Amino acid sequence: MEPNYTKLAKLLTEFSTDLKQGERVLIDAYDIPQAMTVALIRAARERGAVPYVQLQNARIGRELVTEIEEGQYEAQAEWELARMQAMDAYIAVRGSDNIFEMSGVAPEKLSQAMRAMKPVLDHRVNKTKWVILRWPTAAMAQQALMSTESFEEFFFRVCTQDYSRMSAGMLALEKRMQGADEVKLSGPGCDLRFSIKGIGAVACGGRHNIPDGEVFSCPVRDSVEGEISFNAPTVYQGASFDRVHLKFERGRIIHASGTNNEHLNAILDADAGARYIGEFAIAFNPHILEPMRDILFDEKIAGSFHFTPGQAYEEADNGNRSQVHWDMVHIQRPEYGGGEIYFDGELIRKDGLFVPEDLQKLNPEYLLGEKD
Fold first, then answer.
1. Is residue 372 part of a domain?
2. In what order do the strands lie in the sheet with 225-229?
3. What's the CATH number where 112 sits?
4. What average pLDDT does this structure show over 278-296?
5. Number of domains in the chain
6. How many helices and strands in the chain, by DSSP H and E?
7. pLDDT of residue 1
8. For residue range 140-152, what is the model confidence (pLDDT) as tens digits?
């Protein structure tokens, strides 16, 4: 067995989901090598867990949703929800030879499928131990502007890093966010103000996403004011969007523009909650520096934050509900124009580096082991 596969499977079953004797785990294998699926099955069994496997394929998924019939996905959701309710844990490894596979599918078809499957997603997120990650492919290497070999080396390095080193710093940031009221985000193309009072915060260091490295909260639903131009590209529902600009009044997106403007606004009009924000997160993974149009990587970029139209998580909940959950990334390191984050008037991060002493263990030199 490939050593990297074994090491990654061990991380996912031990650290991320902490599988226990007798627990049922659904392994969702999406266009990945059979050997990696086998590694996950073996790793789950070594923990005494009972593995179940679902195999998926992007082209087949596209074909199914392209000519979706009324009630088709509702019927599928019924049995998938019953299966998910029987699981204690969920591990999804998702490969893709073409991130734009869903391009050209009518947005209303995708919305119909997502709306039908939302109860399955909600149960998985809120009621199971879960972790999701991508799988390195030549297509991903192209997105990252790297050779296939170099990207694979980067992927396994970042995915199997020592996530425990993030613990002290991210728990300190979590505590500060839990006690904060007013947040101000400023810099070139960014002028946002909102409250996170009473919402709570959650530190993420390898438990739900691999790679990881963020602490998330959520604005009070109607508190967001100002505007932002996101300086990282984004892909959602198989379509690419650049230079997305959002303007807010009383929490609602009153103006949205960017490339693919019609599709952008169609997504934000999918339901009443899609034009409100469901997540605000500060990221700090020191290995991830540049956007590559893959949100599981891009939302963890060191010196970035993401702001998310749509559904809020139950752990940090402002009550917003939507079939949409669209993480949009803004990078504040100097090479991207810089920027500041303030909590209740105190400078928390400037130009991508944390300022207060208790948060400096989230800066790259500590997380990379260059400073203790």
1. no
2. 252-257, 245-249, 225-229, 190-195, 182-187, 340-343, 346-350, 353-354
3. 3.40.1830.10
4. 94
5. 2
6. 11, 20
7. 62
8. 898 888 999 999 9
